[in-house]
Amino acid sequence: MLNSGDILDKKYEVIKILGKGGMGTVYLCKNTRYGNLWAIKEVIKDIKNTGILTEANILKDLSHVGIRRIVDIFYEKNYLYMVQDYVEGQTLKEYVKVNGKMQMEKICRITSDLCDIVGYLHNQNPAIIYRDIKPSNIMITPIEKVVLIDFGISKVYKGDIDQDTRSAGSNGYAAPEQYGLGKCCKQTDIYGIGMLIYFMVKGKAPITGVEPLINENYEEDIDINLKAIIQKCVKIDILDRYSSVEDLKKEILEALKVNIYEKTVKLNEYNTRTNRCTKRLQEKIYKEVKLRKNIVGLLYFIVAILAIIYILY
């Protein structure tokens, strides 16, 4: 493991560890020549660790604001290093840990951005299946943009992708077909998105794959449209899920639109009730003030009469 201050490839100074996982360690490094920051992934150079090369081959021709560029690959000692853009922010896992479960609007906007990224991958020729959608692989930038990281188990889709046991270690986010129950495809990523939405709704990871399918596992205030979307995404049978992330995004935005409309209606109703109460209160105050003025006027009149009588007699 590298330490702060170590130099890689004679130009990258290690600042700190950004993350560690089964696919290697990622360091935040500074280019000593130009001062810019990079994320550098370190993997033991082993015939078994071909994932980083697969990741590099997948990323080298991609260009999307939600995907980090790969700018360099080099070997040093017994390690292989891949240099990528450094993305400032938090992973979705860290974000939820700090802020708790998320509101409908934010969930829909994050999901919509993610659908754009995954849709871009699926629309490549041939398509790219990400296969590892989970909170620790989603970065949220300071301006709340979404970036998808770690393509270590992604694969190019050529009509059929065999099950890969490396992809089943996603702590409850992996689709059934990733455990040897079928072939991975575009719907595998849709399943992962559904599990991710469930995580944002609940503020914690699902324990099992069937958890989001059970209505009793949702809070009473869950938006019914969002719940229906989650449950369609995570259907056991691939054919029962959305046919594309574009269809999923369309329903997400529609659910958001309906939610905002319903909140607007409720707010208007609240304002109407408040205005009515305010008007009634104003009328009551006006009547009380008028009555007091009349009473005071009457008292003044009585005092005047009594004064006149006193003077005359």
Describe the protein's architecture and organization:
Helix 4 (186-202) runs antiparallel to helix 5 (224-233). The N and C termini lie far apart (114 Å). The chain is an alpha+beta fold and 313 residues long. It is elongated, with a radius of gyration of 31 Å. The chain has helices spanning 51-59, 92-99, 104-122, 186-202, 224-233, 245-312; strands spanning 7-8, 12-21, 24-31, 37-44, 70-76, 79-85, 90-91, 127-129, 138-140, 146-148, 155-157. It has two domains: 7-85, Phosphorylase Kinase, domain 1 (2-Layer Sandwich), CATH 3.30.200.20; 90-262, Transferase(Phosphotransferase) domain 1 (Transferase(Phosphotransferase), domain 1, Orthogonal Bundle), CATH 1.10.510. A hairpin with a 5-residue loop joins strand 3 (24-31) and strand 4. A six-stranded antiparallel beta sheet has the order 1-2-3-4-6-5, covered by helices on one side. Strands 7-9-10 form a three-stranded antiparallel beta sheet. The chain is built from six helices and eleven strands.
Task: Itemize the secondary structure elements and their pairings.
Layout lengths: L6 E2 L3 E10 L2 E8 L5 E8 L6 H9 L10 E7 L2 E7 L4 E2 H8 L4 H19 L4 E3 L8 E3 L5 E3 L6 E3 L28 H17 L21 H10 L11 H68 L1
Antiparallel strand pairs: 1-2, 2-3, 3-4, 4-6, 5-6, 7-9, 8-11, 9-10
